[in-house]
Write a structure and sequence with these properties.
The longest helix has 11 residues, at 122-132. This protein has a 4-stranded antiparallel beta sheet. Helix content is 39%, strand content 20%. The chain has helices at 12-16, 20-29, 44-50, 60-67, 82-90, 103-107, 122-132; strands at 3-10, 33-40, 72-80, 116-118. The protein is built from 7 helices and 4 strands. The radius of gyration is 14 Å and the shape is globular. The chain has a single domain, classed as 2-Layer Sandwich (Alpha-Beta Plaits), CATH 3.30.70.141. With 141 residues, it is an alpha+beta fold. The protein binds ribavirin triphosphate and magnesium ion (MG). The site of ribavirin triphosphate (RTP) has 10 residues, from strand 4. Belongs to the NDK family. It is found in: Cytoplasm. It catalyses: a ribonucleoside 5'-diphosphate + ATP = a ribonucleoside 5'-triphosphate + ADP; a 2'-deoxyribonucleoside 5'-diphosphate + ATP = a 2'-deoxyribonucleoside 5'-triphosphate + ADP. Major role in the synthesis of nucleoside triphosphates other than ATP. The ATP gamma phosphate is transferred to the NDP beta phosphate via a ping-pong mechanism, using a phosphorylated active-site intermediate.
Length: 141
């Protein structure tokens, strides 16, 4: 097993529901450490750049509109197999398909307002962490 870092975003719906702390508790109980964090209200350009891999998809405009609809909480999580561990905590993209006890099953409303983002691979995690954080903003723990 390898210690990895992954990028997590608590999306505008979950911030508005005031469940940042409940989601952080799930990270901590799973052994994932928050090693950097910031709250941000993304600009349209920031959201478009972050989700550039999806720019040809039919849902892209809705995704960008949703991600800029309110503040988000962005964090770097560190731990054993952090990328997959966080994806397991999140559950399926569509909350209707998310396993019981996952963040999306418990806090998400729809495939658009689905509470959290998590990097899907080590390579995308590196890109996404660099998109939001300078190396000096990440605390080794
Ligand atoms: P995320 O990137 O946000 O962690 O979610 P994910 O990997 O589970 O899903 P992804 O395929 O990367 O899609 C990014 C976000 O776009 C929205 N989406 N809408 N209407 C649709 O068919 C659709 N498909 C995806 C979701 O909000 C998803 O989280
Ligand atoms: Mg994704």
């Amino acid at each position: 097993m390898a210690v990895e870092r992954t990028l997590s975003i608590i999306k505008p719906d979950a911030v508005a529901k005031n469940v940042i702390g409940e989601i952080y508790t799930r990270f901590e109980k799973a052994g994932l450490k928050v090693v950097a964090a910031k709250m941000k209200h993304l600009s349209k350009a920031e959201a478009e750049g972050f989700y550039a891999e999806h720019k040809e998809r039919g849902f892209f405009a809705d995704l960008v509109a949703f991600m800029t609809s309110g503040p988000v909480m962005v964090q770097v999580l560190e731990g054993e197999n952090a990328v997959l561990a966080n994806r397991d905590l999140m559950g399926a993209t569509n909350p209707k398909e998310a396993a019981a006890g996952t963040i999306r099953a418990d806090f998400a409303e729809s495939i658009d307002a689905n509470a959290v983002h998590g990097s899907d691979a080590v390579a995308s995690a590196q890109r996404e962490i660099g998109y939001f954080f300078a190396e000096t903003e990440i605390s080794a723990r």
